[in-house]
Specification:
The chain has 13 helices and 4 strands. It has 2 domains: about 130 residues, no CATH class; about 120 residues, no CATH class. The N terminus is likely disordered. Strand 1 and strand 2 form a beta hairpin.
Length: about 325
């Protein structure tokens, strides 16, 4: 009996510890997955401290080289107008210390020259690109992260499962490693794709992230055959059709999901295609009852079908 009680107590203690720290038995990983509101899962690889330090050293060399060159120029200029030279050099020192990272990351899609060389990018935790305000907020805390010798930043990174320094935690950002895979691209010929009539949709509008994912997928469609393209498009097409309460031909979603998301992309890419008009009313109860229902994948595609008409009304 005492053995059973001891085993039970140990089991209870183990469960309590796992409840107190849910990450205790989870291995540390660089993989990071984000699920969008449309249930599309985006996978990223987090950048570790070592590769981020190499990017920092590259940026430091660039900043030091520019400071040295400008210092020499200001010395020459200071012979003639010393006050102006001193003022310009002080302005550069301020920009170099506080603005270098914020300006580059805010205006250069989350990268600096060092990050670009190392294949790194700063993004928001939810997968969106960062804006200038996020970059400023992130780098404003750099003074705390870097004093002394970046120890606070390193400690924060090792304590965070996303390798976030204090500035990242404040701005809600992460640093990822971009996969340098060159896939063939083809321009999306929008004129050959008809938008979906708004009378077949409700007032839901996909966000910019979803449209960007669709556009990137369509531009790389030549990398897969049509069957694989429809297979990859199907989860997003079904989710969009559900959110739209799509009142058009359900076969468009069932058999031609890639064509459906292409027409969604064209519909909402241009403002003139998406504007309120009398026909664009919320769906009625009758419309909701006639909403499409997913069918087994093996019954969707045949070997000899022609999908060219699916891109047109």
């Amino acid at each position: 009996m005492s053995g059973v009680l001891t085993e039970s107590a140990e089991q209870t203690r183990s469960e309590s510890q796992s409840t107190d720290n849910p990450f205790r038995n989870q291995p540390l990983s660089l993989d990071y997955a984000i699920e969008t509101p449309e249930t599309v899962v985006l996978h990223y690889q987090l950048a570790g401290p070592a590769v981020r330090m190499r990017a920092f050293l590259i940026d430091l060399l660039i900043r030091s080289a520019v400071t040295l060159i400008l210092g020499l120029l200001m010395m020459v200029l200071g012979v003639f107008i010393p006050d102006v030279a001193a003022g310009l050099f002080l302005i550069w020192m301020f920009v170099n210390g506080w603005g270098y990272y914020a300006i580059f990351e805010g205006l250069w899609r989350g990268t600096t020259p060092g990050k670009r060389v190392m294949g790194l990018r700063v993004i928001h935790e939810n997968g969106h690109p960062i804006n200038l305000w996020m970059a400023i907020n992130r780098n404003f805390i750099r003074a705390v992260d870097s004093t002394p010798l970046y120890l606070p930043g390193l400690i924060a990174m090792f304590c965070s499962r996303r390798f976030q320094r204090l500035g990242d935690l404040t701005a809600g950002t992460i640093v990822i490693t971009e996969r340098r895979v060159q896939l063939p691209r083809e321009p999306i010929i929008l004129e050959k794709i008809d938008p979906i009539p708004l009378a077949q949709l409700n007032k839901y509008k996909p966000d910019e992230q979803t449209l960007a994912v669709i556009g990137d997928f369509l531009s790389r469609r030549v990398a897969v055959d049509y069957k694989r393209g429809h297979e990859l498009s199907r989860p997003l097409a079904h989710e969009l059709a559900r959110k739209f309460q799509f009142r058009g031909d359900p076969e468009l979603v069932r058999k031609f999901p890639m064509a459906f998301i292409a027409r969604v992309y064209v519909t909402f890419l241009r403002p003139e295609n998406y504007q309120e008009h009398p026909e664009h009313e919320p769906p009625t109860e009758h419309d909701s009852e006639s909403e499409y229902e997913p069918v087994p994948e093996e019954n969707i595609l045949d070997d000899d079908f022609d999908e060219s008409e699916a891109y047109h009304e």
